[in-house]
Structure formats: C-alpha cells, structure tokens
Amino acid sequence: MRLEHHQFRDMDLIGGDPALDLVNTVTARDTLPRDWLDDYPALLRWARKAALIPAAELQALERLAAAPAAKSAAALARCKQLREALCAALYALAGGSEPGAAELEILDQARLSASRAARLVSRGGRLRTQWSAQRSGLDLIAHVATAHAIELLKDARLERLRVCDGRDCGWVFVDSSKSGRRRWCDMATCGNAAKARRFNQRHKE
C-alpha cells in the first residue's frame, strides 16, 4: 500500500460514521490502494476535519507527538491495525459473510485498550464515556474511533452498509437514501465517473 500525503476535505467524510471515515483514509482499495495517513500529523489532520475529538485534546496530542517520533509512529501503526481489521470486518459483513476470527480479535483488543483508558463522567444527569489525551496518550484517536466502531458493529445501520461500486475507490458507507439503492460513495465523484465510462463505452460500440 502506497503512502500519499493528503489534505483532508469535507468530501472525504461520506461514510456516515467516524469509524467508516477512518476506513476510508485508504482510497482505491479495489485497484492500487493509497494510504492517506502517511504520518501521525496526517492522523491529527483527519481527526480535526472529522471533529472526532475536542480541539483542546487535539492540541494536547500535538504536544505529545512532538517527541519522540518512535512513539507517535507506534501509535499510528496501532490505529492502522484497527483500521484494517475494521475494514476487513465491514467488507465481510457487506458481502453477507461473517468477519474473520483474526479481525475480531484485533477489534476486541482495541476495545479492551479503549475501555481501560475511558472514564465515566456525568453530563446533564446522564453518564457518558469520555477519553482524554491524559489517559489515552497518543492512542486517543484510536480509542475514540474504536468506540464508534464497536457501536456501529452492533447497530441496525449495518443493514445499509455498502461498498462503493466505483472504480479506484472501495470506500464504505451507510446508505441513507430512501430507496436503499445507493451504489456510490458520492454521486459527484464515483457516480459521475461510472456514468462517463458507460457513455464512452456505448459511444465506442
């Protein structure tokens, strides 16, 4: 998988869930995959664009990531391991199969790690789970993404889980259309490209 520097944009967040958007930080999975998380700062840029964690926690992560580089590289590797296990599980589910034992084990270990770093807080008379850079360290983004992933994997929305039909894509998304027939991650990109290919093919014929 080739690393590629990328500036994340709103159009990169089409999954319908932060866990899906994390999986989609790799593009063209169906042809020549390109990994947009080329370093830990890229993970920070993605988390900022996705509004995954509060700005203050992002700033704390930036300070932690300043040195030593080996620690941030290891944290990024753990986040990518989570991403790839989640991707394999989602692809299996979208295809009507059960996730593999190896992927489930990675997700379960990520769940346990996130659980150990979490704490319960009270907001408006209700308890909620919270993570912080103080407790999670450089794994904060992975911990929060894991929490979203576990909730998604238990959610009825998985019945609408799709893998984009577009070429050079492979992104995953929750189909929120009324018909439930959405084929592409984004009509403006993969959808239009597919229509253009069909038009050109008909013209050649």
From TrEMBL:
This is CGNR zinc finger domain-containing protein. Residues 160-203 form the Zinc finger CGNR domain. PANTHER family: BLL6575 PROTEIN.
